[in-house]
Amino acid sequence: MLLTRYQDLLLEAGCDEAGRGCLAGPVFAAAVILPAKFKHPLLNDSKQMKASDRDKLRKVIEKKAICYAVASVDNEEIDKINILKASFKAMHLALEQLSQQPEYILVDGNRFTPYKEVPHSCIVQGDGLYASIAAASVLAKTYRDEYMQQLHAAHPHYGWNTNMGYGTKVHRDAIKAFGETPYHRKSFRLLPDQLELELDFEGSLE
């Protein structure tokens, strides 16, 4: 069972991101403040959940949360400032949009850039420990998946409707065949180094 609070004195928001390791598309982040007694049997780390369960929970979270917000930073900004800073920026943008500002922040992971003067704690694998972080992970993941589905309609070769921009074989093969799109992260290693490609080619001749 997920814990509902890290501390009991201050109004607490959970934060998480989605899409940090993708080759294409924005990074999304969500911030969620849940009621103290919020529980749901399906709630868990979003990566451990079925897509249909995430979609169900998104509606529940949006209805039951004290407040929530979702924000994103696009691939061009990611290339300028790097993915770690972009993830933190997306979290800050989500926090700024909350209708009630938190007095304490729980962040999934081991690093975070402080938000204003608000104290925070970084929780490794926090999306499997605290309800507010898990709820944020569900919102960030579902909003990002929805966005990548929309991009897929214009760029169907890359399989973004199923891989969501991650570096699957289908995605990388499409980059080889069709090149990059305006949504690819140029600062990421989209394909193996040329040396590896040459070695693979020589190996195939043996």
Describe this structure as you would to a colleague.
The protein is an alpha/beta fold and 206 residues long. It has one domain (12-178): 2-Layer Sandwich (Nucleotidyltransferase, domain 5). The chain contains 7 helices and 5 strands. It has a 5-stranded mixed sheet, with helices on both faces.
Number of domains: 1
How many extended strands?
Answer: 5
The CATH superfamily name is Ribonuclease H-like superfamily/Ribonuclease H
**Mean of residue pLDDT values:** 92
* Multimeric status of the protein: single chain
- What is the string of SSEs from the N terminus onward? EEHEHHEEHHHH
N- to C-terminal distance: 55 Å
The value of Rg in angstroms is 19 Å
Percent helix, as a range, is 40-55%
CATH architecture: 2-Layer Sandwich
Q: Main traits of this protein?
A:
206 residues, alpha/beta, cytoplasm, five-stranded mixed beta sheet, Nucleotidyltransferase, domain 5, manganese ion binding, single chain, 7 helices, disordered C terminus, EC 3.1.26.4
